[in-house]
Design brief:
heterodimer; A: mainly alpha; B: mainly alpha
């Protein structure tokens, strides 16, 4: 590659990076993506849930209680991915001071928190008929509880600090430090003796379940990621509107909508 | 279909309470997330419109026009 070509590539990359940090630009391009992910989420989640609930064969050991897997596993997986995204956003905020990264950090919290709570709740409901107890202090359950407290912390920290910029940086540090917990959740089943089973899906190995059982699970996992994408875009747009409420373009938008 | 009758489907071989509790909770949380955004968006536009109307009527002080995005000057 010639010198000038690589220079122009790096320039256009830089321009793209700057654009990405512009809340207005994001607000204007994200609508179709939100709809696309929303429709995909609806189709996937309805398919996966109906399939898992009514059509997947019952487990020879657990009977029908294993169907809880189709809501438990996707919510647990996505709650960790949301946290990783917040950690990444925190890093971007601390290094490049990108406004949009702080907005991602704030907009992703409600979805991640509710998914973590859901995973813990459905886990307890699944544990009762399977392990004989609602709650077991097993390594994975405990590290998921820590994840829930990290989400509470991020939410409370934002509420507690009135100055937006200071709150953003504090949340970024907490999000970044908290990512340490994610590998602990992931490998807890290998490191400690636990009641949880090892991963159902890996990139290299074949699933330990027949396709009639794992396909609906995969569909629901993909569906919940699409839901998160749509929900994050929706909340981000709202955060942008709130933080930029006094700008020309937001005020013009409000007048346009009311007209 | 893994079940022969509607009753089988509801009872789930004795696990019905657990399965339905888990599913209904998750569905409620998912739908709640979607509705929360829609309602907050509506509330925002209702309040912002009301403010714009009052500004047009001159009853409140204009917060001033700030240029929002840092790109604005460069574009």
């Amino acid at each position: 590659m010639s010198m000038s070509a690589s220079l122009s590539v790096s320039q256009s990359l830089k321009a793209w990076w700057h654009k990405l940090g512009s809340p207005r630009w994001f607000y204007e391009i994200s609508g179709p993506w939100q709809r696309l992910f929303g429709v995909l989420a609806l189709v996937l989640l309805v398919t996966g849930t109906v399939w898992g609930l009514a059509f997947a064969p019952q487990d020879y050991q657990q009977g029908n209680s294993f169907r809880i897997m189709y809501v438990h596993v996707p919510t647990a997986i996505v709650s960790q991915s949301v946290y990783m995204l917040m950690g990444a956003a925190g890093l971007v905020l601390l290094v490049w001071r990108m406004k949009l990264a702080d907005m991602v950090l704030s907009a992703a919290v409600p979805f991640g928190m509710s998914m973590t709570a859901c995973a813990l709740f459905t886990g307890a409901v699944w544990g009762k008929p399977t392990w004989g107890a609602w709650w077991v202090w097993d390594a994975r359950t405990t590290s998921m509880l820590v994840l829930l407290f990290l989400y509470f912390g991020l939410y409370a920290l934002r509420q507690a600090i009135p100055r937006e910029e200071t709150a953003g940086r504090a949340c970024a540090v907490l999000a970044l430090v908290g990512t340490v917990n994610i590998p602990i959740i992931k490998y807890s089943v290998n490191w400690w003796l636990t009641l949880h089973q090892p991963a159902s899906f890996t990139l290299t190995g074949a699933p330990s379940m027949p396709p009639s059982m794992w396909v609906p699970l995969l569909i629901n996992v993909l569906g919940i990621y699409c839901l998160f994408a749509a929900n994050l875009i929706g909340r981000l747009k709202l955060t942008i509107l709130e933080r930029e409420r006094n700008t020309q373009w937001v005020r013009a938008l409000v007048r346009e909508v009311s007209a | 279909m893994s079940f022969h009758t509607l009753n089988d489907f509801l009872v789930m071989g004795g696990h019905g309470l657990y399965v339905w509790l888990a599913y209904l909770t998750t569905i409620t949380v998912v739908v709640g997330n979607v509705l929360a955004v829609q309602m907050a968006r509506r509330r925002y536009f209702r309040q912002a419109r009301a403010l714009e109307r009052r500004l047009a009527g001159g009853t409140v002080a204009d917060p001033g026009d700030q240029t929002g995005s840092p790109m604005k000057g460069k574009q």
